[in-house]
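Changelog note: in this version the structure field was regenerated for every chain. One regenerated record is shown below for reference.
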Amino acid sequence: MLITGILIIANDQPRVSAIESIFGGWAMLSPEYQGLVQELMMAYGLAGVGIILIIVAVISSKSEEEEDSNPLEILKNRYAKGEITKDEFDKIKKDLE
């Protein structure tokens, strides 16, 4: 009798699909909320990808600006940093012009 009672109780439990168990019950929402949750998850995912793409674009544009500098600007920057002397600056500037 006890075994029969346990089997009846076990069979009365609602069946949980694999999706419901994976998402922790999110799939048990009513249908109108399921769509909303899916749309929000997609929006957050796309926003994350967009932020990553913006960061990569900013970083790559900064490195391109440094590479595209003309030689005279590079020379002025090196002189301003103290990497070369006034004589070296004048000599290299004369060679560039």
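Spot check on this record: Residues 30-96 form one domain. The CA atoms of residues 56 and 81 lie 29 Å apart.
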